[in-house]
Specification:
With about 700 residues, the protein is mostly helical. Among the domains are: about 55 residues, no CATH class; about 80 residues, no CATH class; about 80 residues, no CATH class; about 50 residues. About 50% of the residues lie in helices and about 5% in strands. Helix 14 runs antiparallel to helix 22, helix 15 crosses helix 20 and helix 24 runs antiparallel to helix 25.
Amino acid sequence: MDFANPEEHRACEFVRMSVEAEMGFTDPGGRRISSWVREDVCGSRNGLRGPGGRRARGFVRMSVKVEMGFANPREWLVCTIEDELLISTSNRKRPGRPKNEIWQHFNTIPADSTNGKKDLHSGAACKFCKQKWSCGKTSEMIAHLALQCPKPSPPEVRALYLEILNNGSFNDNDDDNSSKRSKPYKQSKITNHVERLTVTDDKQRRCSRALTKFFVTCGVPLWIVENSFFIDYSKELCPGFQVPKRTILSTTMINVETATVIAEMKKKLSNETNLTLGEFLKNEIIKVIEEVGAEKFCSLVSDHASNVVLAKNLVDIIKLNWATNIITCCKKIVTFFKQSYAGGAILQQEIVENMIKGGGLKKYVITRWTTAYDCTDSIIRCKNALKQNFSKNSHTGEFLKNEIIKVIEEVGAEKFCSLVSDHASNVVLAKNLVSTKYPHIFPIRCIAHHINLLSSDIIKLNWATNIITCCKKIVTFFKQSYAGGAILQQEIVENMIKGGGLKKYVITRWTTAYDCTDSIIRCKNALKQILENESQLLNLEIISILRKQNFFRNVKDLRTILLPIKKAIINLEHKSTTLADCFINLIIMATAIKELSQTSNQNFSKECQNVFDKRWKEFNFDYYLLAYFLHPKYRDTGLQINTFRIICEKTLSIWKLLGGREKSANELIAQISNYSLKSKPYDFEFVTGIHTVKNWWLMCKQ
């Protein structure tokens, strides 16, 4: 564009400018135009006014490419816009943040907008292994390519993101622990000058890494990081440190530390020569060799390496009869004190009082070669404590009674209403002795322990034992086999099987029998795929188990009977559980066992019924039956005619123990009759979700 002065002199200088919001112009004579240009541009109206003009009404940010000539000093600056102005007003939505480069290795899955949620994030699918995420997060995708992708990306891509993960040089604004929203300005507090309430990003990173190392190396459960006491402790140490959430600690932070360890390993390997590599899968060996450099290796060594031979010699010594007997006895002692709450507590008390160094008893693990010594050494260290434990405090009923009474009197006898325990003879005697001294404290048998005994008896039946044994062998094989476990995990991911992989059965954890059988059924198709396509990875025993006729059907039938047992145990763990809930869960279990005869082998069904009847007879259900009757939701629903008399007799026996006399006992029976007939004041309906048993009875009292 051309600008001319009155004498027709052409301005010779051309300027390209970027104008934003507020500008000042100085004319060639040195006088500054003091007016600020704020104008709303529309079409070709874009004149700029001088100092004497009125202020423009619109506010705008503009980016312009113009060529300008300046007139003589007495003329006001005039400009003409050559190209289209790019205008961004406050009413126009700002463009989103550009995606991270990691997305070029992932396919975008559109977000589901049908649920009415705002700020939905797109999902992601790996282009190499096809694994999917409902919400694509930068940190998870980087960690996937660097550490977890079962079908590795090109080496340069993997190396790039391993380095990025190691350096932590990425921003993941989708993580729970990060927020990039600007916060309103707050006036600084006076405490800021005494103790800093903020830390630098570098210190935050170093503290988070140190915390991650502590949790991983010490085997501390990750949920503790969200415990309020742990957060308070961290704030006392460093008020400005933001404790990471459990989800961030278990994903981003651990992935960063893993990448750091791998980087350190590679750095050390790069400076080594004549390396030796143990036997491993062919593809994995070649991958490691090519990654480190083939020229650095000189041999491949199998299981007959000297260190393995030395370990084998140790195992051979332990297998001698004399040594085996000693190790077996030590294992039994350790197992008892690990499983016995009372025994373990007293042993720990003796260790503290005698200031025994090295801690308590140690387990022997056959796959860990040094634990044989640790186990025997712990027995010797705790020798005096073990002798004092049983010579001083024999766990007779009288001893337990005195210990229980000591606790009751310390807390206050009026605060107790029952004693709950297992059915061991010494404990039963102790409960009865306590109940004699305090008639208002009822001896109750632990229903959860009773259900566990019932489930143990069912699992010990030959048919169930064979199925559980086969399931344990399958789980153990895939847990210990690197190749088999990797392929099974890949099948689980590709088939999107919910609930995770195979679960172990642990005899001391009551619900794991169901979890083990359920995991076999969930992974049924994945196991069949491996059997058909990758059978060379399986041993003959696993192949024969998976090919057995009706194997999966039998596992499914066993799972059917174990499901109500698991539900009953979980329901009984709630704080609000009543004796009536226990009674209901036992009835549900009895119904499930009865219905089993329609879907399973007849012999097993009869054996299960016999086991249930045996446990039912040896259990005193009077308290549970009375609790069921006194629950306003049930009352006498489903009870036989002669059951009401049993309830009345149990009620009178309890009333007598509490000091009730004949007149008040007759009044009590009359009240129970009115309650059974729903006569006033017991005619209110019990509404589940609104009423509790306690407030319903209080309502009747009012």
